[in-house]
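re: ur question from earlier - yeah i can do the single chain one, its not a big deal. heres the input i used so u can compare w yours
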Amino acid sequence: MKKSFFNRQNTAITALFTGSSISELLAKTRAAAANGADGIAIEINNLPPEDRTVDNFRTLIKDVPLPFMFICYRNCKWFANDDEARQEFLLRAAEAGAEVIDVMGDLYAKADNELTTDPTAVEKQKKLMEEIRARGAKVLISSHMHMLPPQSAEEILKHLTIQSERGADICKIVTNGDTEEAFLEAIRADMMLSRVFPKPFIHLTGGRYSKLHRFMGTKLGLAITFGVSAYDMTSYNQPLISSFKSVRDLIPWDIGDIQ
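and the output i got, formated as C-alpha cells:
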C-alpha cells in the first residue's frame, strides 16, 4: 500500500529541509528515510530556479517510498516578493507527483496573521488550488502566527475553519507558545481540534515551549508534524525524527483512545 499523509493511524513524522542542489536534497531525503521519517517536506527556497524542473522533482519523489510535500514561502532566495512566480514551481512539483502542496494563507495579499481576507486574493487562491488538484496533489493551507500574541483555542479553531472553507485538504497554523499560559492553551486547542475539527490539521507553536508542544502533538491528533534528521544552524529548534519516534512509539496512549 502506498504511503500517504492521509488516513493514518498516527501522526506523520515528516522531515522538513531545504537545499541548494538536487544532489543535496537527494542526500537529505535518503537520510530522512533511513532515520524513519513517515514523509518528506521540501522547501525549495534555496534551490536555483533552473533546477526546479518537473524531472528533478520527480527524481526526488521516486527516490524513496514516502509521501512528499513541497513548500515555497516568501523567504525564497530568488522570488521572495513574487507570489505568482513561486506558485509556478509548486505546480511543477504537483505534476511530478507530490502528494501535498503548501499554499500560504495570505498568498497574493500579505496579512499579519497570514490569512488574507482580500476577495480577489481569495479567489486567486481557490483557482490555484483547482490547478494543484488537477495535477493530482492535495492542498495544505498554512498560516504562521508565532510572532503575534498567543491565540485562544477558539481563535485557532476559527482560523482553521476559514482555511477549511477556502478549500484546504489539510489546515496548518503556527502560534505563539512562548509562555506557560500559551503552552497550556495550545494543548487545549489540540484537544478541541481533535474532537470537533473535521479535517486533518497541523498545529505547531514557536517559542520556549515549542519542542514540548510538538512532542505532545503526536499524541493529540495532529495529522503531520515536522522534524529533522540532524541539527544545523537553522534547525536547532526542530525535534529530531528519532526523538519524535521515541515519544510516539513508547507512550501507549493517543487521544483517539478516549474519543
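The mean pLDDT is 95. not sure if urs matches, ping me
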